[in-house]
Amino acid sequence: MNAKTAKQAEKHDFGKVGVLYGGRSAERDVSLMSGTGVHKALRSQGIDAHLFDTGERSLAELADEGFARVFIALHGRYGEDGTIQGALELLGIPYTGSGVLASSLAMDKVATKRVWISQGIPTPDFVLLDADSDFLPVAGTLGLPLIMKPPHEGSTLGVVKVIAAEDVRAGFAQAAQFEDVVLAESFITGRELTVAILGTGRSAHALPVIEIVAPEGNYDYQNKYFTDDTQYICPAELPADLTERIQAVCVQAYRALGCEGWGRADVMLDADNQPYLLEINTSPGMTGHSLVPMAARAAGMSYEAVCVEILRGARCKVSAAHPLQA
């Protein structure tokens, strides 16, 4: 270890750190990229970081590793939905990001919407569909085009844009390859934005807004992670007062779910400059195409710095003073 790295290690005395990545969700490949990037960044700062693939190794092995804290770079089910968070609480290992409840709520797009609606936070109208639903009224209720998506997937997996009323059933069938119940949502025509958020409670704050301009407006899995055709405008070219309003409603939405540490809110801005919240990611991507690092750079933070900042906030969320422990 050279003098510079030794100084960094002293500055960031986090002990042995696990970077949880991979996993068993449909987003495994993205998580492998995120975790590799985070691991490299932490190691470059002199942090004793080690990769741990939760899709290939057991919780018993995780317990035996002796991690002082872990950075969750998992995406999707079993990593972003409260399950790994619950296991870490039981193991007493401090972890990055949101706790069990907030992770579970944010992963469930329907539960998220219900919380936001109760708080007056704007989100597109929706209906839930299953194989026995009456598909005829859907287009009339939500308008056309409309969006269909699995309620518990990320990275735009299973997302279908339905243009014509006669295609509603086919759109359902495509989205239902991922889940039996499908979320049908009004399509908001306008600008696609995303807002990264760092911090917890009153300290939570938004990073610069990013506008996403995808080929033919199709910001799908391929255009997210594997092509250079999508344009990202950061900071988004918006009036200052509108930027502040969008950032404020995103922080409000983040707090409403009880999110902690970090996250990223996806937003549609209509022609009247009304923002509509689509979802919050509680363990966003950290790949070379990812948006949290991009927003952080615009705020003057390097990739390495934002990784360290997120790691610094790692903690168990369940109080050690639980009455059953007395």
Automatic annotation (TrEMBL):
Root EC class:
ligase
Q: Which residues form the ATP-grasp domain?
A: 113-312
Active site, UniProt feature: 27, 155, 290
The chemistry this enzyme catalyses reads: 2 D-alanine + ATP = D-alanyl-D-alanine + ADP + phosphate + H(+)
From the UniProt record, which GO molecular function terms apply?
Answer: ATP binding; D-alanine-D-alanine ligase activity; metal ion binding
Q: How is the cofactor bound?
A: Binds 2 magnesium or manganese ions per subunit.
Q: Where in the cell is it found?
A: Cytoplasm
Q: Which residues bind Mg(2+) 2?
A: 279, 281
GO cellular component entries? cytosol
Q: What main location does UniProt list?
A: cytoplasm
Task: Enumerate the InterPro entries for this protein.
Answer: ATP-grasp (IPR011761), ATP_grasp_subdomain_1 (IPR013815), D-Ala_lig_Van_CS (IPR000291), D_ala_D_ala (IPR005905), Dala_Dala_lig_C (IPR011095), Dala_Dala_lig_N (IPR011127), PreATP-grasp_dom_sf (IPR016185)
**Which Gene Ontology terms describe the biological processes this protein takes part in?**
cell wall organization; peptidoglycan biosynthetic process; regulation of cell shape
Q: Which cofactor does it need?
A: Mg(2+); Mn(2+)
Q: Does the keyword Cell wall biogenesis/degradation apply?
A: yes
**Residues given in the record as Mg(2+) 1 binding sites:** 266, 279
What Enzyme Commission number(s) apply to this enzyme? 6.3.2.4
From the UniProt record, give the pathway where this protein acts: Cell wall biogenesis; peptidoglycan biosynthesis
Domain of life, per UniProt, equals Bacteria
Q: Which PANTHER family match?
A: D-ALANINE--D-ALANINE LIGASE (PTHR23132), D-ALANINE--D-ALANINE LIGASE B (PTHR23132:SF23)
- Give the family this protein belongs to, as stated in its UniProt record: Belongs to the D-alanine--D-alanine ligase family.
Q: Per its database record, what is this protein's job?
A: Cell wall formation.
NCBIfam families (UniProt xref): D_ala_D_alaTIGR, PRK01372.1
Recorded protein name is D-alanine--D-alanine ligase
Gene, per the UniProt record:
ddl
